[in-house]
Design goal:
Helix content: 40-55%
Largest sheet: 2 strands, antiparallel
Order of helices and strands: EEHHHHEEH
Strand order of the largest sheet: 1-2
Structural class: alpha+beta
Number of strands: 4
Shape: elongated
Length: 128
């Protein structure tokens, strides 16, 4: 059976409506994984097992990082971010992370440089 889209290679994987060749199966799998929010540990495990995952190159900061920088609690960083609608794509990204005091994986927001600058401005105003 040939791959249903390109019709050039022999299919190795079959889904309900599509059949995939090896390279297209990997492309689809990597596309799905990149859409997921995986922790750095999960990405490293996938890379070690042979997956070619893109690595984030821009610096990102957790609420804890920003809280230490300005001298407030991480909870206050989260409250200010929520009150000002800063947990959006232009200010950072959602990632799966491990909770501080348990083995549970949770979704946390990591701020990019733009989000960091905006949060630091807002936190300086609220702490004065």
């Amino acid at each position: 059976m040939l791959y249903t889209r390109c019709q050039t290679k022999e299919a190795i994987a079959h889904a309900r409506f599509y059949s995939y060749c090896e390279s297209c199966s990997l492309d689809v799998a990597l596309g799905l994984l990149s859409a997921c929010r995986l922790s750095d540990t999960a990405i490293k495990a996938l890379i070690a097992s042979g997956w070619d995952m893109p690595v984030t190159t821009l610096p990102h900061y957790s609420a804890t990082d920003l809280a230490k920088e300005i001298g407030v609690s991480p909870q206050k960083v989260g409250r200010v971010a929520n009150a000002n609608n800063l947990k959006r794509q232009e200010f950072g990204e959602w990632r799966l992370d491990q909770a501080a005091n348990s083995k549970k994986q949770i979704e946390t927001f990591w701020y990019n440089d733009h989000g960091r600058k905006r949060l630091l401005q807002l936190l300086e105003v609220t702490t004065k």
